[in-house]
Write a structure and sequence with these properties.
By secondary structure, this protein is of the alpha+beta class. It has a domain at about 1-100 and about 140-150: Electron Transport, Fmn-binding Protein, Chain A (Pnp Oxidase, Chain A, Roll), CATH 2.30.110.10. About 30% of the residues lie in helices and about 30% in strands. The chain has helices at about 5-15, 50-55, 85-100, 105, 125-135; strands at about 15-20, 30-35, 35-40, 40-45, 60-65, 80-85, 140-150. Strands 2-1-5-6-7-4-3 form a 7-stranded antiparallel β-sheet, with helices on both faces. It comes from Mycolicibacterium neworleansense.
Length: about 160
């Protein structure tokens, strides 16, 4: 089996991936994410903000298997191209993510967890309760699609 297939299989079995996006100056920004793998496409939800601006300005990204705190586990990095989805494609991906992560999908981002940055944890209680029951894509969130390249490997991080 080619190394890329093994890396994809490992990624597909993982609950977490470390997403590496790049600022305009080429500086890498690493973020642990929950995701679903559909063939060679990784899908994840993120709050609309710096990460969505980075992937819009510079769509080349990297993914590697990690733990919940974002510590890479030693597998190969996969490179890809990110696109922010909208409309039914985003809603469909959100439903697939709900199926994969179950009740945790809407609960975990709302909790304060030591050592983990959850961008929705400071919402008022009433809004947290509303979001916990809502299976649609949250209005301040986006679904990002990452089309993974055919070969594993990390880009030169110094080059924008």
């Amino acid at each position: 089996m080619p190394q890329t297939d093994t890396t994809l299989d490992t990624l597909g079995r993982s609950q977490y991936a470390l997403l590496r996006t790049f600022r305009r100056d080429g500086t890498a920004v690493d973020t642990p994410i929950w995701f679903i793998l559909d063939g060679r496409t990784a899908l994840f939800r993120t709050k609309i903000g710096p990460k969505t601006r980075r992937v819009t300005a510079r769509p080349d990204v990297e993914l590697v298997v990690c733990d919940y705190k974002g510590r890479a586990t030693g597998s190969d990095w996969l490179t890809g191209t990110a696109t922010v989805l909208d409309g039914e494609r985003a809603q469909s991906a959100n439903r697939a993510l709900h199926r994969r992560y179950g009740w945790q999908w809407n609960i975990m981002p709302l909790l304060k967890i030591p050592g983990v940055t959850n961008v929705h944890s400071d919402l008022p209680l009433r809004e947290k309760l509303r979001r916990a029951r809502n299976r649609a894509l949250w209005p301040d969130s986006a679904i990002v699609s990452v089309e993974l390249a055919a070969t594993p490997g990390s880009r030169d991080r110094a080059t924008p």
